[in-house]
Amino acid sequence: MKDRSTPDSSKLRSLIAIAVTLGAGAGFARAEQASEISPTAEPPAAPADRSSSAPVEAAPSPAQEAAGAPMPAAVPPAPAVPPPPPTRPAVEAAPAEATPTSWFARPPLTLALGEGARKWAVTLYGFVEADAIFDTTRSYSDSIGSALVARSDTYDGRTGRTQFSIRNTRLGFAFESPLIGQVKPSAAVEADFFGHQEGPPTTSEDTYFDSPTFRIRHAFVKLANPYVDVLMGQTYDVFGWQNYFSPCSVEFLGLPNQLFSRNMQLRVSHAFNADGPVSVDVAASAVRPVQRDAEIPDANAGVRFSLNGWKGITTPGNVGTVALPLSLGVSGTVRQFKANAFTPPPVQNSNSATGWGLSVDALIPIIPAARAEDRGNRLTLVGSFVKGSGISDLITANGGAQFPTLPNPAQATPPPVYTANIDNGLVSFDASGVLHTIDWQALRVGFQYYLPPWGGRMFLSANYTQAHSGNLAKLFPRGGAEIELLVNVADTSRYADLNLFWDATPAARIGLSGQYTQVEYLDGAKPHNIRGMVQTVYQF
Fold it and tell me: Quick count: other Cβ atoms within 10 Å of Cβ 243?
């Protein structure tokens, strides 16, 4: 088995040809974005970089209007006094100049009825995206996700692939309704074209790329009031305070080894001292159980501290650039498993195990900014550290873990097959048939630098992620009964990227990216893949 350190000359020529062909056509950046819903705040009326910094006068509350609060009494005019004779010609004051509108500002696509607390409104948001992708191996579809790099001793691991995709195009609706007492109802629905769909060769390439499946990303109702906010529906998990600390990348989120998950949940949250210099957000949620047969919902909880006077420019994903305060988040998750016993069918009992996870996340403005439009020469670091067991579905890494085959001492034909009632990669059985959750530890760090020219319309980002499982090798030891799995299961994954973005217009963003992935299989093989991407996004 020979590891490749660089692609051969034919692959380099292919990369150069694609870059030249597509560079003239412009490509815009993709990924999860801040115009995506951040469930700790109100559903967006539009991507956050569309908002104006001008102050808004508060409308009277429904209670004040109902009570017929009187207007302030008029002040009687003072007696007229003749002015003194001028000693020099009077100079007429120049009219005050209007505050210029930011180049980045775009009005939201909102339809509204009524005003103030009695307003009904719906905002259409999203983007149209086109991606061109070249890989030096045949390891991935358009999205990398948790897929493993094809081994170098296979044809797929020595041959490249080119893909064009529009599947990340996204459409969302954010709804607002009148204030009822002190409760502010809102809702959001967002979807894209990354729905469940078998990839080629199971599905034709024409169907996969040109007729993608529409799917729900977010769908939730939120009831906000001064004391507690209640959310029910599908959106980002509290675990990791998603997507507040998301990286900036052209690659589709979640990046390999990134904490990234959306689930149906019932959440309660509150922001303490939200308008003060230091604020504290707390949240807890009951989440759709990772295994329905476990009977018990997953539980998430977290706390986030923010220094509101120290803001940094950040782009969670590839669009929706915002100014967020320096923040530190700590969150955790706990979940229950009840896997069918590792015996031939029919199932008679189950084995139990507990999964858990802890995440520490940070956003640190190195060169801070006053507001979202103040982007030139701004630098922000974003990072995350995650440790846990039985959480591979939450961190875009599962190592290709599989359930071992059942023992067959009687040499039955056909051999007995284990009936699993849980997804692969979360738990497994050792040689004695004992259930174990699979351990994972993941690290992510990235920077975003908004260049001085053009006020930050061009910016760079880079990311590094790594994940390692401490017990996969113990579950599939060398020389064991499952020796064939050593060439299919990887306990370590690494990813790095470098991205360049340019805002050609307030609505159109161009993105270029180079990406490197490597995995370590249990037998010691370390294949890698190099990916180049050109993207275009039109935001609305």
Answer: 25
Are 233 and 220 contacting, i.e. CB atoms less than 8 angstroms apart? Answer: yes
H-helix or E-strand spanning residue 534: strand 528-539
Burial class of residue 72, CB neighbours in 10 A (0-12, 13-18, 19+): exposed
pTM greater than the 0.85 cutoff: no
Class of domain 9-47+119-539: mainly beta
| Residue/partner pairs of 468-473 with CB below 8 Å, 24 or more apart | 468/440, 468/441, 468/442, 468/492, 468/493, 469/399, 469/401, 469/438, 469/439, 469/440, 469/441, 470/439, 470/441, 471/436, 471/438, 471/439, 472/399, 472/401, 472/438, 472/439, 472/522, 473/522
Q: Is 515 within 8 Å of 446 (Cβ atoms)?
A: no
- Spans of all domains in the chain: 9-47+119-539
pLDDT tens readout for residues 200-216 = 888 899 989 999 999 99
Residue pointed to by tokens 């870059």:
19
Supply φ then ψ for residue 401, to 5 degrees: -60, 140
Residue 456 phi, psi dihedral angles, 5° rounding: 90, 15
- For tokens 């001085």, the residue is 452
DSSP helix/strand/coil, 138: coil
pLDDT digits over 112-128, tens only?
999 888 899 999 999 99
